[in-house]
Amino acid sequence: MLLNEGAKASSFCFHTMNPDILQHSYEARRQHLRSKFGRKKISALLVTSLPNISYLTGFHGSAGVALVGVSKSLLWVDPRYTLQATEQAAGVEVIEARRGLLKQAASWLRKERIGHVGYEDATLTCRAFSGLQKAGGPRIHWVAAGGMVEDLRTVKDAAEIEWIRKAGKLTAQVFEEIRGKIRPGVRESDLAAEIEYRMKRKGAEGAAFETIVASGERSAWPHAHPSAKLLKENDLVIVDLGAILAGYAADMTRTVYLGKPSARVRTLYNKVREAQERATQVAVEGRLTGDVDAAARRVLKGSKLEQYFTHSTGHGVGLEIHEMPHVSRGDKSRLRKGCVITVEPGVYLEGFGGARIEDTILVTDGRPEVLTPATKDAWFIS
Ligand code: ZN
Ligand code: ZN
């Protein structure tokens, strides 16, 4: 509870800095969604995914059901959230539901005789859907419409870009501050804790995901949890961090080496860096996300490291740390101006160590904007 108060205070502070750019246009987003109803043959969309509700209404609770109709929008919340929803979801009719959110939403649709209603089949459970059908009665024709809001979220508006830019800058600043602490004798978990503490002190709501600090042989585990292991001389150290600010995430990875690098370490790191930079250059409006992935793989293939690059090159970032589009092998999503994605190739050599470099970037019609501008100098020679 206290955390929420703190987060609100810091949001307020940012809002007063630049109110025009930082205000979300929820009604414009709902209008955009309505413009897609015809193609799906629906006259309303029942929104059950929480990030989608947040995107369309501004409500940030842990439970809620929204309906975007042709002429109005509604939000059902339980009594814990009535006041909060009324304040956050401007322009939306808030209904306090004491008998189950979905049940009451379905009864409302039944009463209003709305015939074709879209539902989010990607996230709604089978059980919840059958309850919805039962409460809505036989006259409602339910249309599977999962992905509609996620698709809109792929292209960020001005306010979203500004928040992610701030989250990215904050993330990069925290990394610059703790770089000097990445030294032999420091515990991985202590470093991760220090990073998350500093994010909050700078006004973040917290870490967008559990910070990864993986050193030595453990740096060959792409998703290692920070452990009690102490960093030591000649360790490769992967640090993957991201702050969340006003609901928006950033995502960044840097790799450092604690010592004088051997030829093998130097090649490993420099090739990953080259792959990351080449792939970033390809992330321009009109290109396919699969092209970005291919650009990274091409560099690594040239030095016989591609087989050790075992994950995709990136992902969309926004209200969720992993969202559309995928930036993976053969993916046909076309990048549009305003897409925010990560570019994060990595190479992991079992028993030796790994290297990954990741930036969150904004796609434009020219050179992409790097939203996590932290140094990539990797050699820490004491
Ligand atoms: Zn990451
Ligand atoms: Zn990532």
Q: Can you give keywords for this protein?
A:
38% helix, single chain, Creatine Amidinohydrolase, Chain A, domain 1, six-stranded mixed β-sheet, 20% strand, alpha+beta, disordered N terminus, three-stranded antiparallel β-sheet, Creatine Amidinohydrolase, 382 residues, 2 domains, 13 helices, 19 strands, binds zinc ion, elongated
Folded structure, characterized:
The structure is a single chain. The protein is α+β, with helices and mostly antiparallel strands and 382 residues long. It folds into 2 domains: 25-153, 3-Layer(aba) Sandwich (Creatine Amidinohydrolase, Chain A, domain 1); 158-381, Creatine Amidinohydrolase, CATH 3.90.230.10. It is 38% helix and 20% strand. It has 13 helices and 19 strands. The chain has a 6-stranded mixed β-sheet with strand order 4-3-2-1-5-6, with helices on both faces. Strands 7-10-11 form a 3-stranded antiparallel β-sheet. Strands 8-9-12 form a 3-stranded antiparallel β-sheet, with helices on one face. Helix 7 (101-112) runs parallel beside helix 8, helix 10 (158-178) crosses helix 11 (188-201) and helix 12 (263-282) runs antiparallel to helix 13. The radius of gyration is 23 Å and the shape is elongated. The chain starts with a helix and ends in a 12-residue tail after the last strand. The model is unreliable at 1-17 (pLDDT under 50). The structure holds zinc ion (ZN) (2 copies).
